[in-house]
What we know:
Elements: E1 10-17, E2 33-38, E3 55-62, E4 74-76, E5 94-96, E6 101-103, H1 108-118
Antiparallel strand pairs: 1-2, 1-3, 3-4, 5-6
Amino acid sequence: MPDEDSKIDHYVLEYRRTNFEGPPRAKEDQPWMVVEGIKGTEYTLAGLKFDMKYMNFRVRACNKAVAGEFSEPVTLETRAFTFKLDASTCHQNLRVEELSVEWDATGGKVQDVKAREKDGKGRTASPANSPAR
Length: 133
């Protein structure tokens, strides 16, 4: 929140999608989306998704009489990340294959563990003492 002595009443944030990295170009296809009346110096923009194209953001401060100039635009990207589940360390009811993950409520791995325990090759710790998976 701005200081009590500050003459800033609120901020205006504008953003838009773009297809390239860098400052905005003279002719843009996408219009600026406007968020008005932001009282603090931080704002969370909801609805963004992973792996979106680049986005331009700019902000300006306003007092009760007039709005200031926009800041220099900043270009950001919501990059996606990849991860892989390990079948040997995942939850016992989770069936992990190369390109799919499926919840098996009947305990797909539980049956395998019980079979190994019968053969004397299974876990020796009780479920209460086993590490969380």
